[in-house]
Amino acid sequence: MMAAWKGTGGVCVLATVVGTRGSSYRSPGARMLILPDGARIGAVSGGCLEGELCRRAHWWTSESPAVLKTFDTSTQDDNEGFGLGCGGGIDLLLERMPSEATAAHPLLAQQRVTESREAAALAVVLEATASSGLRVGERFAREDVQRYPEIGALLERVVEIGYSFTAELGEGALAGCRVFFESLTPPEQMLVCGAGMDAQPVVAQAAALGWSVVVLDQRADFARATRFPEAARVIAAKDAAALSGLRLDARTAAIVMSHSFAQDTFFLESLLAQPLGYLGVLGSRRRTLDLLARLGRDAMPAELHAPAGLDIGAETPEQIALSILSEVQATFAGRPGGALRERDGSIHGRELRGEARDAADEPARIRTSNDCGLL
């Protein structure tokens, strides 16, 4: 989106999901950039709204640079001609993108998060009282809310818990204003350790998910960018120094799959000490135990996924890639990877772990933007 916004010569409109009720295809924080010619990048629904938004967004924002629009998709009847029927409601903030590079510019802020791999948060006003002095669409970053301590405190809370919510403010002149607090997190990063033929569908599928993919192999003839056009980087990893330039964190997954015992031992030893969100090894449990024995370990670490992947009966390289990436996604989301029909509650509900569960103690005036009952 950032490149498209910079490259256009006209006015772009950014559509952001700021609230949902009932059944919804996208969660709060989902974005779509509408270009001057009506083309779009991204999506805010399952296809119900995008066409009409592209046709009307510039008109809706012609008199006000930011407009909050609510769509009811709870019936099968046409809704303003959209022909919806998804079973819920969705609130969208439509904003004409400013040309100036401020700290609270949503696309610039996300770019900084992507580059630094450090989480951030933004606040945007959805409803403002006459006495507040705020306006709909006014944005705040953590560094520019000195005048508004309540907004500042909630921005810090967003970074702490890692998801977005809407709050009705209750302090001073801002009482009664409704603000969307948006969590900005770096994209998932995938390290594919091994550049064999079966690594290619893993890279392609991970890139299609929007993940940043890095391929590593000690064999220079395998570690070639032409073999992995979807990868952000392809590295001939001669030694552990190859990992020193990578930012590895809880949103990083690594899969060891070189099919070389020596290489897999090298990668496994290098990665076991890293703060990864997921570490998996392709192959049998017995082989992984042999790898660990070579490293002086006599048991399978609890954090190691070996054999990597979900049990979906995968046989082909493409199916195995699907199995592995499904397990990675489930692990990142804190989900068990089971059938949705067996799940109680909303399919978009977040599984809170650790300190994030403290969110249940938040004041009642704060509500999540999607009826998951988290706060």
Tell me what you see in this structure.
- The protein has 375 residues and is an alpha/beta fold.
- It folds into three domains: 10-96, no CATH class; 106-186, no CATH class; 189-333, Rossmann fold (3-Layer(aba) Sandwich).
- The protein is built from eight helices and 16 strands.
- Mean pLDDT is 86; it is low at 351-365 and 367-375.
Question: What is the structure about, briefly put?
Answer:
Helices cover 24% and strands 22% of the residues. The chain has 375 residues and is α/β, with parallel strands linked by helices.
Give the tags:
375 residues; six-stranded parallel sheet; Rossmann fold; elongated; alpha/beta; single chain; five-stranded antiparallel sheet; disordered C terminus; 8 helices
Which fold name is given in CATH as the topology of the largest domain? Rossmann fold
Which architecture of the largest domain would the CATH scheme give at its second level?
3-Layer(aba) Sandwich
Low-pLDDT stretches are 351-365, 367-375
Structure classification: alpha/beta
What string gives the helices and strands in order? HEEEHEEHEEHEEEHEEEHEHEHE
CATH C-level label of the largest domain: Alpha Beta
Largest sheet: 6 strands, parallel
Output the CATH homologous superfamily of the largest domain: NAD(P)-binding Rossmann-like Domain
Count of β-strands? 16
How far apart are the termini? Answer: 31 Å
